[in-house]
Amino acid sequence: MSRHLARSLAQLLLTLAGVVTVAFFLMRAIPGDPALYMLGDYATADAVAVLRAKLGLDLPILQQYLLFMQHALTGDLGTSVVTGQPAMTEIASSVPWSLALAVSGMGIAIAIGVPLGIVSASRHGSWIDRAVMVGALLGISFPVFWIGLVAILGLAHKAGLFPTLGASSEPGLWTSLHHLALPAIVLGLSVAAYIARLTRSAMLEVLGQDFIRVARAMGVSEHRILYRLALRNALVPILAVISVTFAWSLGNAILIEVVFSRPGLGSTIMKAVLARDYQLVQAGLLVLAGAVVFVNTTFNILYGVIDPRLRTR
Amino acid sequence: MAAEPEPVALPAPQRRLAPMLAHSGLVTGAVILVLLALVALLAPWLAPNSPDKTDLMRAFAAPSWAFPLGTDQFGRCLLSRLIWGARVSLEVAVAVVALSLSIGTVLGALAGYLGGVVERVFTGLNDVLLAFPGFLLALAIVAARGSSLESVVLAVSIAYVPRVAVVMRAVVLTIKPRAFIEASHAIGMSDLRILLRHVIPNAFPPVIVVATVSAATAILAEAGLSFLGLGVQPPTATWGNIIADGQTSIVEHPFISIAAGLCIAVTVIALNLLGDGLRDTLDPQMRRQTGLKAL
């Protein structure tokens, strides 16, 4: 077990290093001069030169990379060109908002998606299975920002059940939750569709295995088969589904934040992109990818805890 | 359990066609897609008006013979814009599938077949790339390159190559130990020939399924990027742009955004139906091969 833990942590560090590297080179794959891009077409040559020196763009690329790594380790992810504040500060202030949305959204998605997927699989071919699959198909096919727009139109404007904005400046837990509700529900439902389909696949695979057949032949009740045999073995694949879906949901979360005008990491990155604040874009990308790596590693460790066969020897 | 008899040759294509035609989901999806392709290809003749012609006197006009779905806030014919938008979506889907599949399958096949260091490097690189949520990666690439159709295609393709490669590698790993591969080695076939002649053709079924999924993702990603203002730039009509345009007037005139969203949904549903149908009817072993990573 401790070997598995050590191996997982080593992989975490390696992947994080890779993530930082990719984020660094991605933003420098821009053809042309980043400084010119940031200052716009009317920049003077002097201004461009000053900015280049400030951003360290004159140094050889390898040196820039090492400097970047060094800074990243101390938490310095560059400075926002627009506000002059360290990128880390901008990001740190948006993280709580995104975290609230991500946690509540994923919570709703898991609470709806996993049971539906399991029920669908255990009643394979029945009307429940078909209904769930039709619903899930619709859920993954409509663009999430469109669902958000329709939800705002229907439930917020027309019905007045929810506020039309995703956040409010008024204090109070209830107000915050009320504003979080609709974005979280929309995110949750769209991710739930995805989770339901994948969970159903995973469950069907487990239920198709030989030991289930044997148990049925031996007369074990369907109820026992499902809850004591199938579910336990499906636990790891279902956790894998959740882990994979989490990364994907972050992309959706950006669109939801924009549609609902809600502050958060997604909105921050969007504003940085539109303002050509590439240091901030890079930093935001890094943080999000880092979050995915952390979640994946946690799940990897969990797999080892649950299923001894998955521990590295 | 006794090992299943190894197929020594590919099953005849005809034997695969019949169950496909009987699968209602697959047929529905295929028919919708063919219709869509026709609409996209015949856009210049099908659209009643020019999609870009503005007429502010006629903004938000009600449906009429001249403008079957009415007009948007600039007086442009909505139906024409939707038809031309289908063209863009089709272009994006085809381009992304072509690009990501051609690169991804080769990389995945090499990694799976060669094994060793190549595979290790591949897996490590993939883990890093897959840590970036697909849409975000596409967003960053478009942000770096500037917004255009080419940028969107490139961005989504790059974001999707690792996902395709992972599936391909998983498939190749199941093909490699099969008897006919060993036989090919034994008679002295070179690795390259084995790859081209045996491995890749046998890997087609899962790859085709991945193709439908990546096409669906590409269309949704293009819509999302265009909606954010980072995709194909206005005034070009794309479904994502139309939704964005309709957003400002959504309370009084919701139909614009709703119609474009429905177009996207129908297309993606058709692609998913096709993909699910293919997955069901092609080699049932395939589900075990691709597992969760198919998405």
Report on the architecture of this protein.
The complex is a heterodimer of chains A (313) and B (295). With 313 residues, chain A is an all-alpha fold. Chain A has twelve helices and no strands. Chain A has helices spanning 2-27, 34-39, 45-55, 61-73, 87-122, 127-141, 144-158, 173-207, 210-217, 222-259, 265-274, 278-306. In chain A, helix 7 (144-158) crosses helix 10. The model of chain A has no long low-confidence stretch (mean pLDDT 84). Chain B is mainly alpha-helical and 295 residues long. Chain B is built from 13 helices and no strands. In chain B, helix 6 (134-145) packs antiparallel against helix 7 and helix 10 (204-227) packs parallel to helix 11. Mean pLDDT of chain B is 83; it is low at 289-295. At the A-B interface, helix 1, helix 6, helix 7, helix 8 and helix 10 of A face helix 5, helix 6, helix 10, helix 11 and helix 12 of B.
Characterize this entry briefly.
The complex is a heterodimer of chains A (313) and B (295). Helix content of chain A is 77%, strand content 0%. Chain A has helices spanning 2-27, 34-39, 45-55, 61-73, 87-122, 127-141, 144-158, 173-207, 210-217, 222-259, 265-274, 278-306.
